[in-house]
Every structure is written in C-alpha cells, then in structure tokens.
Write a structure and sequence with these properties.
The chain is an alpha/beta fold. The chain has 17 helices and 19 strands. Helices cover 32% and strands 23% of the residues. Helix 2 packs parallel to helix 4.
Length: 497
C-alpha cells in the first residue's frame, strides 16, 4: 500500500527567512502506523506537521517533493494553541463548523455530534463560550472538533501539553483505540514522552531542521543522548539496564531504589524540598471568585508561597489554577478574601501570543529594559534576535517571554504551564535559570515530572480550595494516580524515603 505522506529530499524556508526550517527530510508515513516525532524546541517538528496538511501549510519556499495520498478533508490537524481553532460564540458551533462547511447532511451531523460529545464528555460545556473554558478543556474541544470529520490521518502537535496527567492518559488511551480499532494513522509530536512512547510503533527524532534518527522505538532510544530521553528510558541507561518504557517494565528490569548509585538517585528522585521558616512572599486568604453567578471557581482558597522558593500548583483541568494566578497577578479581583504580594509580580499566562508587542525578538527582549546578553545567550535566543516572535517555536517564544519578564526584575513570578512546548533539556534549563535568579515562583503545571524535580513544595487546587503547600518529596509520596513515572514504578515506602 502506498504511503499517505512522502517527504523526499524535502526542505522548507519561511518567507523572508535566511535559514531553512527543514532540510533533507526523507520520511514516509504508512497507512495504519503510529509515528511519534520528537526533538528539542525549535527543531522543526511543528513546521513539518503543518506542511503535512496543505490547508495549514505556512508560507515559504520548498525544495524536493512532498506527496500526500489523501484528500484534504481526510487530514485532521490539532495544533499546540487550541484558541486558534475555536472561533465561535459557543462550543457546539465550533464542533459542527467543519461539518457545515463540508455540507454534511443534518441527520448525519447530529449523529456525529452526539457520538463525539459523549465520547469526550463535553455535554456540560456545549453551550458555553470557548473563552470561559480552561486551557485543557479547549484542547479537548479542539481534538473533538477534528475527529468530527473522521480523518484517516490524524496529525497532532503536542496534544497533551495543556492536559492534566489523568486527562492526558485518558486522551492517549482514546487515541490508541482509534489507531487500533479503526486503523487511523497517527503522526504526532510530543515532549512529554513517558505515556506516549509505549503507544508508538515508530520514533522519529529531529534536530536543527532534519531527521537524525528514524526506526522502531527501542532501537532509536538506544542511540539517543541521555539528556533527551524521557524518564524511564533515561533511568534504564543510567543504571546500565535494558530500556524500560512503562512502570511495569521498569519494575521487571530495574533494581530497587536502594540499589541505585547516589548520583542516579539525586537525578531521578524528587527534591527533598522544604516549607515554612522563611518570609511569605505571597499570601491568599479565604478567597472566593467565580466568572458566572452561582458557579464559583474558588471558594475559600488559602495559600502561602515562601520567599525565594519554587511552589508548584497542580490539579485537574478547570479546577481553578489559572484563575488563582490571574487573581494573584491582579488581573481579577477577589469577590471575597484578600491577596497580598511582597514586591513586584510578573505573570506568564498560557496564551503566549498575548505578550507579543513587537516585530522582532530583540525588541521583545528589551521591552522592559536592556536584557542581559549572557541571559539571552543562555536561553538560546541570540541567533533569533532578528526573527519575528511568531516565527519562533512555542518553546522559543516561552524562553523569550521569560527573559523579558526577568529583565523587569520581579520579586515574584507567576507561571501558567511554563513547560508547555519545551523539551526536557530546555525545561530543566529554564528551571535552573529560575533557581539562579532567586525569584519566588508559583507555577501552575500539569508536568508532574518537572514539578517533582524542580519545586521545593507542591499543592493541589481542588473543589475551589488549595491544599497546604507540602515539601515535594512528601507530596509525591502521597500520590498514586498522578505520580511521576519513577514513583509509579517504585512507590515510596522503604528505600528512597
């Protein structure tokens, strides 16, 4: 059977771009395959995925050939930013938009809508404005809208980036069923690889706009640099064992925690962390808030963020994490209760495009003052100074905004999903940057691996309230369903405590 997508000696350069975004790409996507695309932020993954769907292809010049064996309506694309695809006043209008454009008969449209909405559990959200949904809810809605057209090839660019761990696993399980039961071909990029790798039958690694490795998952992982590996394969190689992709495999192939060298334990076990004993930089006391009457988001929320420490705020999609950050940033006012911040507050929201005010990266970096050249170099932004911010990858945009925020010298940084769009190496480099700056950080995140390795303490937002900030190691020792992969394989209780 012929390939659905075929890249042959393919290259691409954005309009007015000086350096090719893609070069010498030779890649074949076969019917029924599940191909996972990975690589550092800015390596060209998103560009390749957009080019795979002609209606979404960016403007620029190409070399070589790209052949698609499917009509456009059989290609489904889900990008990193769900807001770009949700344009109507209500969610139900967004879901049926593509069917209306394709003149699908009304009875068939209703049947597809009922099936898809039920499958995703979106009934309570159907008549709400997309603007009122959380980032994770928007991503689920975007995925549902794409599946309404019953695509044969599903192209996904980091679809779990804004989903909490349990929602991400539910989505990936659904994606696996679609792939297995209906032979839907999947081409997907992802940075959070722990839950995705076991689903893929093929792994493609990119760097600097070209493919550096392509083959069966285990074979490719064996030749990848350790710093780029997800947690369990990286741990497997560090211990000199066969590569484990899942916690059950790790239990069978890896020694117990007590048998790990100290250096390995330090790299893979969550921070010891601490809480209390220093001055509070941010306090939230008995805060109530809701966007709609009789629909509270927060009801009696309390939180203390210690000065100079990194606190991770976890919780399910729609629980109120982003709302709490907006209140702490002063963008919303509590309807009851008080919030007090010690010093200047910087805020990084999920909608990165809202920060872009200028037409070059250099102007953005110097918006709040002269950015430190060493800091710009450390974040990998020096070669990008003349580029338009919208030409950067999601990860590069985030680092640009972070440098701009740090240049303003805030005392407290509020970060909403700071690792979205970042590969592991970049997300850890960002964490080191935050640690070195000495700024107090409150970060809402679904990335439990990052929280476990970076945060001093963690807390949950649940039922309108916030659980007490708890040292990270103690916090994750109490987790079961949403624990880091290492802790799923080796539950606390004995060695490692």
């Amino acid at each position: 059977m012929s390939a659905l997508l075929l890249f042959e000696n393919f290259g691409f350069t954005y309009a007015n771009g000086a350096v090719p975004a893609l070069r010498d790409i030779n890649l074949s996507i076969e019917p029924g395959s599940f191909t996972l695309l990975c690589g550092p932020s800015g390596c060209g993954k998103s560009t390749l995925l957009r080019l795979a769907v002609p209606r979404c292809a960016p403007v620029g010049s190409t070399v070589g050939t790209l052949t698609c064996g499917l009509p456009d309506e059989r290609l489904g694309l889900v990008m990193q930013v769900p807001d770009n695809g949700l344009v109507h006043r209500t969610l139900i209008d967004d879901l049926v938009f593509s069917l209306e454009n394709a003149a699908v008969p009304r009875a068939q449209m209703q049947a597809r809508l009922a099936e898809t909405v039920g499958y995703f559990g979106l009934e309570p959200l159907l008549h709400r404005s997309p603007d009122t949904l959380s980032g994770g809810q928007k991503q689920l809605a975007s995925l549902a809208a794409t599946l309404m057209m019953r695509p044969q090839l599903l192209v996904l660019d980091e679809p779990t980036a804004q989903l909490d761990p349990l929602a991400a696993r539910d989505f990936l399980a659904m994606l696996q069923r679609l792939h297995r039961d209906f032979n839907v071909t999947v081409l997907m990029s992802e940075h959070r690889l722990d839950d995705v790798l076991p689903l893929a039958d093929r792994l493609v690694v990119m760097r600097d706009g070209t493919v550096t490795a392509d083959g069966a998952v285990a074979d490719v992982l064996d030749g990848v640099d350790n710093d780029a590996l997800p947690t369990l394969p990286r741990l497997s190689k560090a211990l000199g064992c066969a590569v484990a992709l899942t916690p059950p495999q790790a239990k069978l192939t890896l020694p117990p925690v007590g048998g790990w060298p100290t250096s390995v334990r330090d790299d893979f076990w969550p921070r010891a962390g601490d809480v209390g004993g220093v001055e509070a930089a941010l306090t939230v006391r008995d805060v109530f808030f809701g966007y709609e009457k009789n629909r509270p988001v927060l009801q009696g929320a309390d939180l203390t963020v210690d000065k100079g420490r990194i606190t991770a705020l976890l919780g399910g999609n729609g629980c109120g994490k982003s709302t709490l950050l907006r209140l702490c940033a002063g963008l919303e006012k509590p309807q009851q209760g008080k919030i007090a911040a010690l010093g200047r507050v910087g805020y990084l929201m999920q909608q990165r495009a809202a920060f872009v005010l200028h037409d070059t990266v250099a102007k953005e970096l110097n918006h709040a003052g002269a950015a430190d050249p060493a800091l710009v170099e450390r974040c990998g932004l020096t070669p990008l100074l003349d580029k338009h911010p919208f030409d950067l990858s999601a990860g590069q945009q985030l680092m640009m905004i972070l440098v701009s925020l740090l240049t303003a010298k805030p005392d407290i940084l509020l970060l909403d999903e700071p690792t979205s769009g970042l590969d592991r190496a970049t997300s850890m480099a960002m964490a080191a940057l935050l640690r070195d700056s000495g700024v107090t950080v409150l970060a809402a995140t679904h990335d439990v691996e990052w929280a476990a390795l970076v945060a001093d303490c963690c807390c949950h937002v649940f039922d309108g309230r916030v659980t007490p900030a708890t040292p990270t190691r103690t916090f994750f020792a109490r987790q079961w369903l949403a624990a880091p992969a290492v802790w799923q394989a080796f539950p606390p209780g004995g060695d490692g405590q």
